[in-house]
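Regression report. Comparing outputs from two consecutive submissions.

Submission 1:
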Amino acid sequence: MGIVEIENLRKTYAGGFEALKGVSLSIEEGEILALLGPNGAGKTTLISTICGITMPGDGTVRVGGHDVVRDFREARRMIGLVPQEIHLEPFTKVIDTVRFTRGLFGKPKDDAYIEKILRQLSLWDKRDARTRELSGGMKRRVLIAKALAHEPRVLFLDEPTAGVDVELRKDMWGVVAELKSSGVTIILTTHYIEEAEAIADRVGVINGGELLLVEGKDALMKRFGQKDLHIELTEPIETLPAPLADRGLRLSADGRVLSYTFISTGERTGITSLLNDIAEAGLVMRDMRTEESSLEEIFVSLVKEGAA
């Protein structure tokens, strides 16, 4: 059994909008799960329901074996939540706001632990700064520190790098990887495909309130990933020779590059016979390279399939 267990979760808002349509998901302890989906897909509703902010319409959610409705306090103690919006008391010192959050959960004072997470998040040097003096990226780190203050076993990051520049985003990925190494289970929602590709163990694709797929990132890339073979010719050609016309080749506008798409996991890619046919047609290759589909392309195709 996973540390988070979701069974047939449904949520319908007033007016009849179905935000979640029977979502089932098991999240293993110590993994990083990335939830990908467009705006309105149901990502935030799903997180809010697991965290007890939104009441489920139907179905069950358990965190560490605790039902989020019946055993709300026990379940919530196991959860840290970093919301999209940055809301911090502007005149409070960083260390004080983190200590205060720990106290809200009934945890005893532990300055050694507070120091540990502030150092982990590169906030120790800013511990006496007032939050209004911090940059947006540092404020985001304070939100994570507050979410970790009560030593949760599960951390939810709702669009953690929204509005953060690329360099700081990569720093945040490092922080997430470090948290995972310390045993924290992390679920993050993101619009940034490269975020999932960089740090997630598994990827879930949600759209229209339905979970279209949850799969290991590497397996997903392997199962759906297409590769493009690009063959550069020594001399340009105007049209494809007749023997190559039905081989699924694409000719570049300048006539110098032939492109061929194949499934890298297939038993037969057809590349060997294709190269023979190209040679027999009298074409001479200068160079050859392959490109793999990105997770973004896979995601777009899955959302299109789910909407069809």
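Submission 2:
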Amino acid sequence: MVQAPPPTPHELVDVDQVLRADREHLIHPLYHPSDHAKPLVIVRGEGAEIIDSAGKRYFDGLSGLWNVHIGHGRAELAQVAADQMGTLAFNNNYVGFANVPSARLAEKLIELAYPNLNAVYFTTAGAESNESAFKTARFFWKLDGKPEKVKIISRRWGYHGVTMAAASATGLPAYHRMFAPLVPNFIQAAAPYRFRCELEDGGVRPCRLPDGHDYAAELEQTLINEGPETVAAILGEPVQGAGGVIVPPDDYWPKLREIANRHNVLLIADEVITGFGRTGKWFALDHWNVQPDIMSFAKGVTSAYLPLGGIMISHQIQNAINEAPLDLKFTHAATYSGHPVCCAVGLANVEIIEREGLVERAASVGARFLSMLKTQLEPLPTVGQVRGIGMMAGVEMVDPNATGSAYYDNAVALVGRVVARCVANGQLLRRLNNTICMAPPLISTEEQLQRLVDVLGEAIRAESQG
């Protein structure tokens, strides 16, 4: 007797029932019902593709949400999770307890990270990681006898999460409007965004100076105005992701390191998006030979197979925690810090990235991907700029017939149409204002990336004529 083939995804799903339950009982991130009228019901992931309930395949051009580095459907990670669950699914990792996966993953991360970092505190997500970074910075300065050093200086166009402090550090007003007032002592400075340069005519034109502005000096002036004696840390993504893949000038981060040293403040690198090979380095500040005092991470540490994040801290901060008086101990805590299953999966994921050379691959294939985008898209009149690094890229679109802020803002609706056309043709991208963002899995083939560029180019040409 011939055995019937296994059912396909759409044969296993009552789509109408799922959508009914979703519509009636689920609030999604960034939610408004009008944006969710026809959601894709995703039922499977395979490699660099995801598959919906109708059996249609899509190239996952944003790696889920910048985070599925090794691709979907890795049975090896599922087995690691099952084995760890069958051994020890959970025990709290509070002081007095330890578990094997969290200790081993911490050791491995310190091996991979910047040489000055020496200890890890685990969280479950990027926002929680940044909250931990802020609290750790304040803790450090209080132990140092400087309790007034509490302010965090971040940059406009930066994204650090949507918990209250992380949202207050975020430099994107859309995340503030309905949740204000924000947490005090979070200050935004100018971002190193040459294409929408706020230092020229209020951000209504690209930078006209051949060598650009000194954006680090602008941040330093903000710090001086606030009073360095009140500032705990400078915070920034090495490459601003949700702001539109903003790659800084090469001298920017070395200058920020010097500014932090000069004014006796900590430097926090938010590597939630840029970590674990996304930019072609294990961690992105390596592009500029800079080491932070605190680094927040999440996303790629498990390739999103389970929620995990954390911060890595310098020897100096670790020593302060270790030497604190008992009545001033580090009372930051979370139920799932050091979760054994998440850490076991994280360790296996990092080993896959190492074994398959995906960091090096992101550098080489990413450079060719960016070249494809620039060659095919930059000549188009509605494409203002193509930018990126490693396996992350942004295509900022404009209205070439407009001036002032309309030069950018008139393109927002066009980008929405372009992205929708790409989705219809099996390519998943993300619209962020007037910029199309891409961060394909690190395993993506050059053929898949070329197909993405071809479809995107066709969509821009077709929708720009409408």
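Expected: both submissions complete independently.
Actual: both completed, but the second showed a warning that disappeared on reload.
Relevant detail on submission 2: The mean pLDDT is 95.
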